UniProtKB/TrEMBL annotation:
SUPFAM superfamilies named among the record's database cross-references: Bet v1-like (SSF55961)
Gene Ontology biological process terms from the UniProt entry: cholesterol import; cholesterol transport involved in cholesterol storage; intracellular cholesterol transport
Gene (UniProt): Stard4
Ranges of residues in domain START: 29-207
Protein name (Swiss-Prot/TrEMBL): STAR4 protein
GO cellular component: cytosol; endoplasmic reticulum
Organism: Turnix velox
GO molecular function: cholesterol binding; cholesterol transfer activity
SMART domains: START
InterPro entries associated with the record: StarD4, START-like_dom_sf, START_lipid-bd_dom
Signal peptide residue numbers: none
Taxonomy, superkingdom: Eukaryota
Length: 207
């Protein structure tokens, strides 16, 4: 089990990695799923043998309120149907922490519940915000859970120039679920989960 990393260099590296993902050309992405709430693309990850997913949709709210619902805090468990528990294990400063959370089973429990321990960092980006994270090998694995691993992930939320009361939310997710799972099942679950994330978030913001 690793010791906790120095937060400042990890936060800087994580931010730079997400900005690099945000600059990937449209031609490198392949469409994975479209719903009324979001569009999801994917490309092979450079971090592991699975995919890096990109999700994007417009939400009718200001960036700060949207990001407050996404990052670790009191809102997230209220609306995210995939997340079942969340604990802040360490806080470095107001915008930087380590959290442990668990997720529900997926695809009729073919994918069993998972546990993650993530370093999370939220920072300014252009006129909006970036909240991002990466998993750590930290803390004992709870019984009845498989420990998953999030390679660099994050959400960019910026106001629309002509409609500042609306925001464009763009996410980059690359989750290694681990365990003996066929890649096709993982791909189906990831696309579905990301699309549902947007519909659940939209409902929560309107509540």
């Amino acid at each position: 089990m690793d010791q906790l990393p120095d937060s400042a260099p990890l936060a800087t590296k994580l931010r730079n990695t997400l900005i690099q993902y945000h600059g990937i050309a449209d031609s490198e992405w392949r469409l994975a799923k479209i719903t009324k709430d979001a569009t999801v693309w994917r490309k092979p990850s450079e971090e592991f043998s699975g995919y890096l997913y990109k999700a994007q949709g417009v939400l009718e709210d200001v960036t700060n309120r949207i990001v407050d619902h996404i990052r670790p805090g009191p809102y997230r468990l209220d609306w995210d149907s995939l997340m079942t528990t969340m604990d802040i294990m360490e806080t470095f400063e107001e915008n930087c922490c380590v959290m442990r959370y668990t997720t529900a089973g997926q695809l009729w429990n073919f994918i069993a519940p998972r546990e993650f321990v993530d370093f999370s960092y939220t920072t300014d980006y252009e006129d909006g915000l970036l909240t991002c994270g990466i998993s750590l090998d930290y803390g004992e694995v709870r019984p009845n859970f498989v420990r998953g691993f999030n390679h660099p992930c994050g959400w960019f939320c910026v106001p629309l120039k002509d409609y500042p009361s609306h925001s464009l939310l763009t996410g980059y997710i690359q989750t290694e679920l681990r365990g003996r799972l066929p890649q096709s099942a993982v791909d189906t679950a990831m696309s579905r989960t990301l699309a549902k994330f947007y519909s659940d978030l939209r409902k929560a913001l309107k509540a």
